[in-house]
Amino acid sequence: MALNLDSLGLSAKVTAEGISAPDYQTILSTLISYFQQIYGSDAYLEPDSKDGQMVALMALAIHDANNTAITVYNCFSPATGYGAALTSNVKINGISRKGATNSTVDLLLTGTAGTTIINGSRLAP
Prior knowledge:
Elements: E1 13-15, E2 18-20, H1 24-39, H2 50-75, H3 83-92
Helix pairs in contact: 1-2
């Protein structure tokens, strides 16, 4: 059975709902399946073999490329952009970006005086 090289199903895709891509494990298992179609189902592609490590490297490269594509896509939105990409996008649209400021909140804590609140702990509402 020949591989359909036009749609391996490993790349990021942009749809009306946004951008998505398969996770690393899906990419790896798909590549293993493709390699077994090419070299036979008895091809040993476990992580302790050189061939298995090569397939894992290819899967990681595809996964990294997909994550880069998702980041680039998201940087074009003011809601999800950040850093230099956000600055460039607001400049293109003729608006300016405000500098970072510290947030403040008025807060009333009630409880037993002297109780230690450990960093990172959650308080019940």
